[in-house]
Amino acid sequence: IFCHKVILAGMCDYFHRMFLTGLFESGRQEVIMQEISAATGLLLTDYLYTGQIEITTLNVQDLLAASDMLLLGDLKQKVEGFLCSHIEPKKCVSI
Q1: Tens digit of pLDDT for each residue in 57-82?
Q2: According to the 3-state scheme, what is the secondary structure of 46-85?
Q3: Could you say which of 3.30.70.2190, 3.30.710.10, 3.40.50.300, 1.10.10.60 is the CATH number of the domain covering 5-86?
Q4: C-alpha span between 65 and 48 (Å, rounded)
Q5: CA 19, CA 75: separation in Å to the nearest integer?
Q6: Alpha carbon distance 24, 37 (integer Å)
Q7: Environment class of residue 26 by beta-carbon count within 10 Å: exposed (0-12), middle (13-18) or buried (19+)?
């Protein structure tokens, strides 16, 4: 996923710390994020650029984990709100 480090660092504490504190990734042109699927990565990149994201029952759990990992508090609250409004008794244990 092609994107700008300055956008990522400006919108996300995780990337801010990664790129501006001298970590290994700060000098690289490519960062590999094995913990996040490509589909979730695309959604998150669009979110960081636009502030908009479509949360669905198919992506909600991946978005929750990724927003927690990337320190995206606003997105995590949106995801948690979605989960609360869509929870059903038969699914609550797995969530």
Answers
A1: 999 999 999 999 999 999 999 999 99
A2: HHHHHCCCCCCCCCHHHHHHHHHHCCCHHHHHHHHHHHHH
A3: 3.30.710.10
A4: 16
A5: 21
A6: 22
A7: middle
User: Is the C-alpha dihedral spanning 74, 77, 79, 82 positive or negative?
Assistant: negative
CA distance 83 to 55: 10
Helix and strand counts by DSSP (H, E) for the chain: 5, 0
Task: Choose among 39, 68, 69, 65: nearest CA to 54.
Answer: 39
Nearest to 13 by CA among 69, 56, 51, 85: 69
Taking the C-alpha atoms of residue 20 and residue 5, their distance in angstroms, rounded to an integer, is: 10
pTM for the predicted model, two decimal places? 0.83
CA atoms within 13 A on the CB side of 72: 24
